[in-house]
Amino acid sequence: MLEQIQSTISLLKKQKPLILCLTNYVTMDFMANSLLALGAAPLMSESRDEIEELTQLSQAVYINIGTLNDVFMDKAQLAAQFAHSIGKPLILDPVGAGASKLRTAAAMKLLPYAQAIRGNASEIISLSGANGGTKGVESTDPVMTAIKSAALVAQSQKTVVISGPEDFITNGVEQKLLPFGSSYMPLITGMGCTMTAVISAFIACHSHHFQAALEATAYFGLCGQLAHEQAKGPASFKQVFVDNLYNPDWTSMSQIIERVS
């Protein structure tokens, strides 16, 4: 798997895909810097009037409903519909789905247009029509309890990533559980949002969405595990995590994979 990740990273740095991000105010900076470190070109937009033009230019569209309101949903719905009409991949982060009727309804409106979804266990459970446990944007459900829900969501030709202490990826046919990451990750605002952004960048360079999501999720977790060994706490973790996205230690990553095999 590591060789496949290396190949995609090389392609990503060569192609520098444009990722149109319709996202929240809280984590925008972290997402943009992580995409830049990865080799992608992030573009954030506030105006509905330019959405069709920017969607046309982009290689992938990422929608994150973290700071949700009617103006945002109007813009997101337009982007989703237009991306679908011209065949651009749409990646959805249903932040807080299940926490309120508004968030769940917004995520469900966008879901039909998405080729890939990344959420925590509670968010994925809510997208399947069931009720999960949630503390706002945090899950109270273990990853393994959302696997059936992920399979249901994936039935309509979608790739679903459940993130948590372990990450689960499925497209309804293929599936994989990944054990990489760091205990600092839940202490950093925007780690999940940034993970979805990284998945978007990999999908922009990869025709097989499951494989792209698998590689992106593994790379994200491996960078986090390396950063954990280098950091003194959550604040320094965030800094060295971005450094690892930019300049990964492939030898150390290989050793981590061997230890868990």
UniProtKB/TrEMBL annotation:
Its EC number is 2.7.1.50. This is Hydroxyethylthiazole kinase. Keywords: ATP-binding, Kinase, Magnesium, Metal-binding, Nucleotide-binding, Thiamine biosynthesis, Transferase. Belongs to the Thz kinase family. The keyword Transit peptide does not apply. It comes from Fluoribacter dumoffii. It catalyses: 5-(2-hydroxyethyl)-4-methylthiazole + ATP = 4-methyl-5-(2-phosphooxyethyl)-thiazole + ADP + H(+). Catalyzes the phosphorylation of the hydroxyl group of 4-methyl-5-beta-hydroxyethylthiazole (THZ). It is an enzyme of class 2 (transferase). The gene is thiM_2. InterPro entries: Hyethyz_kinase, Ribokinase-like. Pathway: Cofactor biosynthesis; thiamine diphosphate biosynthesis; 4-methyl-5-(2-phosphoethyl)-thiazole from 5-(2-hydroxyethyl)-4-methylthiazole: step 1/1. It comes from the Bacteria. GO terms for molecular function: ATP binding; hydroxyethylthiazole kinase activity; magnesium ion binding. ATP binds at R118, S163. CDD domains: THZ_kinase (cd01170). Its cofactor is Mg(2+).
